[in-house]
Structures are given as C-alpha cells and as structure tokens.
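step: validate -> pass
step: tokenize input -> pass
step: predict -> running
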Amino acid sequence: MHRMHLPFLSWFRFSRLAVAGVMALSAAMLTCAAASAQDAKTLRIGFQKYGTLTILKALGSLDKKLGEQGIAVKWVEFPAGPQLLEGLNVGSIDFGTVGEAPPIFAQAAQAPLVYVGNEPPAPTSEAILVPKDSPIQSVADLKGKKVALNKGSNVHYLLVKQLEKAGVPYKDVNVTYLTPADARAAFERGVIDAWVIWDPFQAAAEKQLGARVLADGTGVVNNYQFFLASRDYLDKHPDVVKTVLEEIRKGDLWAKDHLKESVDLLQPVLGLERPVVELAAQRLAYGVTPVTREVLQHQQEIADAFYALKLIPRKLDVQQAAPAELR
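step: predict -> pass
step: emit ->
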C-alpha cells in the first residue's frame, strides 16, 4: 500500500474532525448571530481547501480591494460544499463557492441562498475511481457494487448521470455516504469497490494510489463551480458582491496564465506533492461569469433528477434562488 505523506494524512484527519464538529460550530455561530447584528464592515467568505477562491485568498487582492473601502474579509474554511452551505444557512458566512449539487440540497432545506456567478464547466475535475487492479471495467459493472461518495456534493449527480447512461438503475448500486477522508481510507483498504470524488482528492488518488478513472464528467455533466451569497447580504450589499466577483475574475485571468505560480500558491495550502497539485490545477476551469438562465436551467435538471430519486424531499424551483435581475 502506498504511504501517504504526513501533511496529506493530517489534512484528511482534519476533514473528519471538521465534519464531526461542524454542526456544533454552526449552532454556536447561530447563537452569536441572534445575539448581535452582523458587522456590515466584515465580509465572511466560506471556502474549501482548493479552487480559485483559495488562489484569490493567497493572492490577497480581494482583502486589499475591500480594505480600501473599510471592509475586512474573514475567510472561513469548510471540508466540503454541503457543510459550507450549512454555514450560509445558519448565518455564519455571507458568500461561498461550491459545486453543482450542494445548492440543490441546501435550497431543499430552505437555505436563503442566491446564485451570483459560476466558473466554466470542468467535467474532468470529478470522476468515478476504481483501484488500479479492479476487475470493474465499465460503469455498467457497478451494478451490485459498493460505491462511496460525499452525499450532496457535485459528484452525487455525476454518479446519477453515469448510471443512467449505462442503463443501471440507481437503486441497483450500493451507494455509501462517506466524507472524502473516510472514503479515501475505505478505498485504500478495499472496503469499497469505487469512489466518486473531485479534485484534488481525485488527483491525489490517481498519483499516490494509481487509482484508475472509470469515468469522469466528459459528455455527461458540466461540473460547474458556483459562487453563492446569502440573500440578506446580497440585498444589503450588492456592490460588495459585485467587487468580489470582479476580483475573482481578475484572479482567474492571472491563474490561467500563470499555472506554475498558481501551483506554488496551492501546494503549501494543500500539503500535497507538486505533481498532484499540478494535475488538479490543469483540470480547473478559470473565468467566472454572472450566472445565466441557461446555467440555472441546468441546475433545475439536477434538482428534478434528485427529486425523482427521492434524494430531496420536495420539488424545487431553482429560479427562486436566482439573482433579482433574472427573476
């Protein structure tokens, strides 16, 4: 078995602790929010330890830009999209970034979120992985097999659509919900047959374990990365959100043209070997744009698919989470 480097193992241990403690942390933050009014001079951004927001944080350009306006930026780290949107739901953050599926589950839980922007499609940044010596050769072979994923994450929809394409009913696969940390451990031990995961976890499994990509999102899902704001914050501070999106756009343009430097910024944050970070960075999509009706229609299709599978309790109208100009 390939030995993981200590920083990577520490990261996974942190993820398990973060997932276990996020509910208690959210409750405490909710109490604080109820006790005092939000400081309008602080923007609280939820981010994950990867992606364009991580690069923007490292660059420091947003902090400088808003600082000139007397607004401080507080960066709050989350282990995955569902936990991040739980933070937005309880009022502990104002803005954040997640994949396609988390907003669907969050809206089903009546979170007051608004789609404000998205990155271009990145279909190769998520995949169904199997061990390098696995007898599984196609998605159809997953029937009756144990497949792990983080419930409510973007990869949840990837599995749904790949099974649909292969003609395998969702109910015929033993789907197990595990955090990335626990799924990685189960994958290494051979406890699961396949793992549906996103970068940089995906790139790490490929480079460190020799994991084989059974299928990614190419031709099946777009895998958009979304930027969302709480409705209350957006209504009160639309100019701040506009500034954030503009700084993300500038950061994207820089990162797209400076891949080596982007990797230099990401590597110490991730604690991963350079080849892993390089592979993941190459699969990132750069170029944030305001969300459009076409993109929201894609989200509606995801919501309808999840409702049909009874993964969410009610039928959603994604348009209700659209910015005012699209409603």
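step: describe -> The mean pLDDT is 88.
step: cleanup -> pass
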